[in-house]
Amino acid sequence: MKILVINCGSSSLKYQLIDMDDESVIAKGLCERIGIDGSKLTHQPAGKDKFVVEKAMPNHTVAIELVMDALQDPEHGVIKSTEEIAAVGHRVLHAGTTYSESIIVNEDVKRVIRECFDLGPLHNPANLMGIEACEAAMPGKPNVAVWDTGFGMAMPEKAYLYAIPREYYEKYSIRRYGFHGTSHMFVSGEAIKFGGLDPEKAKVIVCHLGNGASVSASIGGRCVDTSMGLTPLEGLIMGTRSGDIDPAVVQFICNKEGKDVNEVLNILNKKSGVLGMSGGISSDFRDIENAKKEGNHLAEVALDAFIYRVAKYIGAYTAAMNGVDAIAFTAGVGENDKAGRKAICDYLGYLGVKIDDAANDVRGKNAVISAPDSKVKVMLIPTNEELAIARETKRLI
Ligand code: AMP
Q1: Which residues pair with 170 in a beta bridge?
Q2: Kind and range of the H or E element at 364?
Q3: Given Cys at both, which of 37, 39, 293, 304 links 33, Cβ 3.0 to 4.6 Å?
Q4: Which active-site residues does the annotation give?
């Protein structure tokens, strides 16, 4: 069975065609600059050369048509007809409080995605366009929505409610949702399997550390807390996002700089994090690390603060679960930065966490990186959101 996974951003579209018999990737690709001059599709069939199409993509419908053409291209394609695709799985950002489980798309699901445009203003409209484009390109083919907020919906009220007047939750569903849900679901599940942990009771903390970064705590695969909130701005220090901050800072900057709330929120989302703290060096963690190695103090402080905040969240989530069996690192920084993993774990000696330096010298595969006598199993688990979406899609159809 072949499943197509689609992940639409506001001006991009990523796809993977996955053979669910062995969960291998048959082809993957990326459409960039949708709706902007200079659009381009890069198609990568497994084991063959890349294929680039430079054609105008005024919207996601045209992008999907070009993806279908690339998949069926006589020379670079991997299928003869779209009949070979059993279903399409879509990453959809936000379902508000309506859905937590993945679902086959119908008119009601599309209505909910539309109603949540103000909760996910960049992603939900693009996600809906992707679904409608697939419906147009492949009439009758099942489309499945896998929610980025789905995993976090299992949080108890004490974790998801903000301490603000109740009416705002009741009127506008203002609460903590959590994001990177497919990644946290996938990695916590893999950590339980790979670590040989009790699937019903295992207490797992997943550190998804990439350009966007979040931590989750789950017991038996059910989320009990996660660091992102109503939007992805809450929680850890990220590439460009501030993470947790006193909301009075917003008012202060507005007053001092003559900016409005939207402008300051834009600064907190796009110009803060390690980019802002380092004085503008970069949002890319490798650049920050290189600047630190060259003796740049601001880069060093930005990295120290990033690591410190991750360690604080691990401490908090250990308390939330009254213990922790495993900590799993994933995403760009979590999977590649062994020094960062070690620095975070150096804060956790009080939990009996011990890293094995030789085992920690690893990337790109599931691995236990803690010493045999560590009280908590620490693991590297590469995330695979596309596969998680494909598995959900297969399960539903
Ligand atoms: P993601 O958002 O998951 O794609 O992660 C992207 C981030 O991972 C970027 O900031 C990269 O700089 C970072 N990254 C990738 N490789 C490394 C590495 N070896 N050391 C530190 N950061 C890395």
Answers
A1: none
A2: none
A3: 39
A4: 148
